[in-house]
Amino acid sequence: MVDMLNPLVVNFGGGLVLNKSQFEMEPGEAMELRNFEPDIGGGYRRISGFSKFNTNAVTSGSTTGAILMTAIYKDQVIAARGTEVFKVPTSNGSVTQIDSSRTSAGRYDFDTYNMDGTDKIIWADGANNASSYNNSSVTDISGTGAPANPKYVKIFKNHAFYAGMSATPQKVIFSAPYAEGDFSAANGAGSISVTGTITGLKVFREQLYIFCDNAIFRLVGNSLADFQMQPVTTNVGCIAPQSIQEVGGDIIFLAADGLRTIAGTEKIGDVELGVISRPIQRRFTELNYNDVASTITSVVIKAKTQYRVFFSNQAAEADATGVIAVFKGDRWEYSDIKGIKPNCADSGYISDVEHVVHGGYDGYVYKQESGNTFTNASDQSLSMEARFKSAHLTMGDPGIRKRLHRIILNYRPEGSLTTNLGLEYDFGSSDVLNPNSIPFTEIADLALYGSATYGTSQYGGAEFILVRQPITGSGFAVAVQFTEKQNETSTPYSLRGFSLEFAAAGRR
């Protein structure tokens, strides 16, 4: 007798979910999602690699240590290391020292701006005077009234705002308009104090947000004459300055209770706050903030409405972790990162193309979204471990055993790939024998839409195609897995969903 086959269609979406039981998870959600990114177009995409932004290290003489700043400015990267600041052009161009007069510092804060017709960048590091650069010369921000060694700097309403001075951790000092180094009150400079130690500044929607360790404020107005400080919350603060980013029309930052946003919609002069990381809250409760807060960094990929936050914590590069968050209009979806270890990061446009760069602990600037591997300082391709595991699927009835016959996978290749297709029956029970995983190189039965010929064509060139693969085994529930260790020739690919064909084989 021929088994009556039933289809179960699963469309991938929802991202990594760690706060639900097996029976609460939606079919498209993932129990494991590592080095995949939720795609704004649907499904999950294996991330691209990273490579050197410039083949030359950021160094002059005996300069050592981690990169302390990577800032995209005028089609190049401004990078700090040790006591020096450099210009780093693309490709193999020479790295040029632009400032060597600094004392050893921690990571830098910076902003790019144009107040007088000249594009400039300004930076601060908590150990030196702030400095501005116009692509020709560096100007020290010093003199009467200048902030002493600020940690944070942002340009707002054509004033330069400085904060994080060790002697006055609750104070914000701002310059006169159109003059980042003029602190004369008669010319429009001044200062404002808040409650709590300031941990970061961010300009958003014509307002300056001032983050503290246990509170958030915002500055509204245009000048000394009408600046007003308004409390946003006195219950929540930011614990990691380099976690603060704008993405999806909102500000995202790391608080003691996880990732939070300041909602873009204001209501009667207030700002709504909310934790958005509940689906993966475990990733944040596992962190020892005392150990990792000072090494946490983040970056935004605007084209993907994607936020990446990295938990370096001096771990071996291969073990460094992080989280990808993608805003999809009405929800956030998440995945894990493993194997990328930035000390600082930035994104922006070089020659009208969005670039994502980070500074390594090895003295090189790297470019993310580049290549198919994680390439280190020695030009070795590090292992990119990628893993997807679906929810355990019961096909609507966990009491009936199912015999699986075939999986039809909807995916889009971007070249050759080495992933393996696997099945896990009955929630990973040790009493169940799972079939061996199937390398994709052994799956040749490509089924395409329309009149395409199996195994010979691709639908629309780089569009999604169907793979039909016989499978074996039976159980009351099954999870579908894709696992890989990347090699030098592997390329990203996207998973849109799959259909399982199964037959009922009796009730438990």
Please characterize this protein's 3D structure.
The chain has 508 residues and is mainly β. Among the domains are: 6-32 and 387-507, no CATH class; 108-237, TolB, C-terminal domain (Neuraminidase, 6 Propeller), CATH 2.120.10. It contains 2 helices and 43 strands. The strands form 10 sheets. Strands 1, 3, 4, 36, 39, 40, 41 and 43 form an 8-stranded antiparallel β-sheet that branches. It has a 5-stranded antiparallel β-sheet with strand order 2-35-42-37-38, with no helix packed on it. A 4-stranded antiparallel β-sheet has the order 5-32-31-30, with no helix packed on it. Strand 11 (120-124) and strand 12 form a beta hairpin. The longest helix is centred in the middle third of the chain and has 5 residues, at 281-285. The model is unreliable at 264-268 and 444-461 (pLDDT under 50).
